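Researcher: Here's a chain I'd like modeled. Treat it as a single chain, no partners, no ligands.
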Amino acid sequence: MQDREEQLGLSRLTPREIEMIGLIALGKNHRDIAEALKISHRTVEKHLEASMSKVGALNRAHLVALAISSGLIPPIEFGHLVKEIGSSTPD
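Model: Modeled as a single isolated chain. Structure tokens:
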């Protein structure tokens, strides 16, 4: 897993960027993430832009797919993340 993370550039992501990717995997939008983390939605956008740039992701879905396939964040199981990220799940 470590080799795959390094190969994709995922090892360069900050803990905050990883947290945001997990929230995106839960279906959260920029404003939801901003509210949950008590930051501005523009800060969320900047963190996500940086994350996508670091790993070469084409969009948010690609970013989540790379993170899940590498084991950086756990896959969604029965509508919930195996390891809870954030305070709620999508409706």
